[in-house]
Amino acid sequence: MSSAHPGARRADGPPAPGATALKGRTGLDRVLHAAGHSLRGLRDAWRGEAAFRQELVLAAIALPLAVWLGRGWVETALLLGSLVLVLIVELLNSAIEATVDRVSMDLHELSRRAKDMGSAAVLLALLLCGGVWGTALWQRFAG
Questions:
Q1: Would residue 24 be called left, alpha or beta, if left means φ above 0 and alpha means ψ between -120 and 50 degrees?
Q2: Which of 83, 89, 90, 93 is catalytic?
Q3: 141 Cβ partners below 8 Å, 6+ apart?
Q4: Distance separating the N- and C-terminal Cα atoms of the chain
């Protein structure tokens, strides 16, 4: 069984079979191909992850509210940044879950820990977002 991962090089130099197509690309060509992979990841998350869809819809609704609610560029950036952070962490959690499931669907303590830690990261991002938004709302209406 080979321990090589996509993009790994053999000892003699050429890319291993199945190596990522971006390894030979440079400049704008590499950026454009990487952007395509990123868009495919967003599309896959939208199609396959209900939590990502829900968070993205809420973020789209909250975006104009953040512009209205923020009393300056720093508050607006914190409101928007906390929304984007939730989406980023959700994408990473989904990637962890997909990787663990790809390796094995068997129940294993390390698989459980990886998935639970990813879920905990999403929870912390949501709590941070809720705290930022709650504070901004408090300042706007009670302060």
A1: alpha
A2: 90
A3: none
A4: 63
Give the residue with greater pLDDT, 26 vs 51. Answer: 51
Q: Are the CB atoms for 48 and 91 separated by under 8 Å?
A: no
The answer on pLDDT for 66 being more than 80 is yes
DSSP character string of 93-107 = HHHHHHHHHHH--S-
Query: Where would I find the H helices in 4-106?
Result: 27-48, 50-69, 73-103
Asked if residue 142 belongs to a known ligand binding site, the reply is no
Residue 75 a catalytic site member: no
- Determine whether the annotation assigns residue 73 to a binding site: no
Tokens of 15: 């890319």
Dist CA 62 CA 87 (whole Å) = 13
Q: Give me the pLDDT at residue 5, please.
A: 47
Domains observed in the chain:
50-141 (1.10.287.3610)
pTM as predicted: 0.81
- Residue 109 marked in a binding site: no
